[in-house]
């Protein structure tokens, strides 16, 4: 059954705006908002069990198309709502909306790291949601086993982060970690590798263990001193001297694909 909501002042729609605008609200509710058919379809298929769609909202126009009909037909027990187009535009966080969004509940995942092998990317206080979303997207593309959040990293459920993943967040596993967890990884013989301008190893010449964590630092200050003291290896990307540095997400993406290539193609 599809219920109608006519006013932007409806409590459910107010809740959506709060989830879009406030990290505190997302954390307290244990929920976030996803827009677009691709992301919602991926979540409905249940690739990551820590995510669960609780409600789906359509604009009146979007409800008439085949993609919407396919969703409502295949998932009849879901809670659906139809909203006037002008109200949905005020609700949506994107410039050109597809007319569909969902509220997604999430559960915090306890880090479970394999004793035998695992490739992970660590984000050290990344503050730009677009960069974080791109790193998550590349981690999925490179076949990495998870994304580790360290320091003051931007909320992974920020709507801009979710959009930047282009739907791949539904296939990614997130862990929030601390120094103790990293030291535990080292005891398990994981390499903790950091990107630095003065890195000791050329990224394209180095060999990599099937038990590797690669760390990407803050956009302006780079890798934190705490993480530098924990890491056991450092790498650099050779570049034309006219280019001083790379965007954090670009550097991280190059690193992940290079490591995956060397590890999986041996």
Short description:
Strands 8-7-6-11-9-12-10 form a 7-stranded parallel sheet. A 5-stranded mixed sheet has the order 1-4-3-5-2.
Notes on the structure:
The chain folds into two domains: about 1-105, 60s Ribosomal Protein L30, Chain: A; about 120-265, SPOUT methyltransferase, trefoil knot domain (Alpha/beta knot), CATH 3.40.1280.10. Helix content is about 35%, strand content about 25%. By secondary structure, it is an alpha/beta fold. Helix 6 (about 130-140) links the parallel strand 6 (about 120-125) and strand 7. Helix 1 crosses helix 2 (about 25-30) and helix 6 runs parallel beside helix 10 (about 250-265). The relative contact order is 0.14. The N and C termini lie far apart (about 55 Å). It has helices spanning about 10-20, 25-30, 35-45, 65-75, 85-90, 130-140, 160-165, 180-185, 225-230, 250-265; strands at about 1-5, 30-35, 50-60, 80-85, 100-105, 120-125, 145-150, 175, 190-195, 200, 210-215, 235. The mean pLDDT is about 95. The chain has ten helices and twelve strands. It has a seven-stranded parallel beta sheet with strand order 8-7-6-11-9-12-10. Strands 1-4-3-5-2 form a five-stranded mixed beta sheet.
């Amino acid at each position: 059954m599809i219920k109608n909501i006519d006013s932007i002042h409806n409590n459910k729609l107010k809740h959506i705006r709060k989830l879009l605008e406030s990290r505190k609200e997302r954390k307290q509710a244990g929920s976030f908002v996803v827009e677009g058919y691709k992301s919602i379809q991926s979540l409905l298929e249940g690739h990551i069990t820590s995510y669960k769609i609780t409600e789906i909202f359509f604009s009146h126009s979007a409800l008439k198309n085949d993609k919407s009909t396919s969703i409502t037909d295949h998932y009849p027990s879901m809670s659906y709502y139809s909203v006037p187009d002008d109200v949905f535009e005020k609700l949506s966080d994107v410039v050109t909306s597809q007319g569909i969004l969902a509220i997604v509940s999430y559960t915090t995942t306890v880090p479970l790291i394999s004793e035998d092998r695992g490739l992970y990317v660590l984000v050290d206080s990344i503050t730009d949601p677009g960069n974080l979303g791109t790193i998550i997207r590349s981690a999925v593309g490179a076949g990495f086993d998870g994304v580790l959040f360290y320091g003051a990293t931007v909320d992974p459920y920020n709507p801009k982060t979710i959009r930047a993943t282009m739907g791949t967040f539904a296939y990614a596993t997130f862990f929030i970690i601390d120094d103790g967890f990293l030291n535990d990884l080292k005891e398990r013989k994981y390499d903790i590798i950091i990107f630095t301008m003065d890195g000791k190893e050329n990224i394209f010449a180095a060999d990599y263990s099937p038990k590797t964590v690669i760390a990407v630092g803050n956009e302006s200050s780079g890798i934190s001193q705490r993480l530098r003291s924990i890491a056991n290896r450092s790498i650099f990307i050779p570049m034309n001297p006219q280019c001083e540095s790379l965007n954090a997400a670009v550097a991280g993406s190059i690193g992940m694909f290079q490591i995956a290539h060397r590890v999986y193609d041996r």
